[in-house]
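Moderator note: this is an archived Q&A kept for reference. The question asked for a predicted structure of one protein chain; the sequence and the answer are reproduced below.
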Amino acid sequence: MIMSASMKERNRSLSIAAGIAYASIFGFSFLVTKGALNVLDPMELIFVRFLVAALLMTLFVLTGWQKINFRGKKHWTLLAMCFFQPVLYFICETYGVNESSTSMAGIIIGAIPALVAVLGLIFLKERTTRGQTLGLVLSILGVATVVLAGAATTSSGQPKESTPRGLFFLLGAMVSAAFFNVLSRKASDTFTDFERTFAMMWSAALSYGIIVFVRWLTGSLGTTPSLQRLSFPRALASLVQRSASVWYAILYLGILSSVVAFFLINYTLTQLKASQSSVFSDLVTVITVLAGVFIRKEPLNTMQWLGAALIVFGVWFTNRKDKAVPAVSG
């Protein structure tokens, strides 16, 4: 199907709006995540959010609002995409952030668009222009500036040390996210945005459901020692009760941060180069910082403002419309 110039421009504008939207959703998620983690183990929270997301998307299919068709299609790209994100990524990010300094975690995660650009060139043959490369560099420098400036002003006493295992997990998260972007872009040739998101939600719900179940059986899961000693039926009842106590966080993370945000990510990966789409993830840093300033009244120093501005300019440079080159006649 050949699209007209006006249709291409419309899709491009919608994809940029989608990128800003998913960055905003992720950026505000910290407001509810901290409260939920006070009563749920990280693995439990991930399982519940994706279970809610998977059930919601299944409801869309059963009611006929959306249709899916996985028959007769090559599934290896889709399965690999789901393995890297959300299954492997969230495992690596959870343990990596827990065992690393905030600055190290922020910088490594912020560098994901650079790795996406490299993998996009290798596997998708997508070349970045000079302006797009400049934009990627600016956004990564911006993330580093915000994170390092924030660590310098908020650290009390000795800063948290990053363990080798923590760095290993963070690099795993970086690689996982980068391969997801490339694989989702490639899978967009065969699967719709909804189909890719549907597969992601169920793969995460099933994978983390198994992880939670095994850790329940081994007594290695729980936010308190008493929870670790519960039998499976009582542990399940406890999970339901504790999840209900933070229902607002579950709904935000399950509906907005999972269904809506990942659908928007897959949409941008259908319309834009993988590197152009992934750079919006650096905007999450800006949204999170601004949310802290205006909602939680957290202080923000000059260097952090500078870093935020670099990220915004970087995203703009990466996704600005290339000037048309006039044809040479004669």
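Archived answer notes: Residues 16-319 form one domain.
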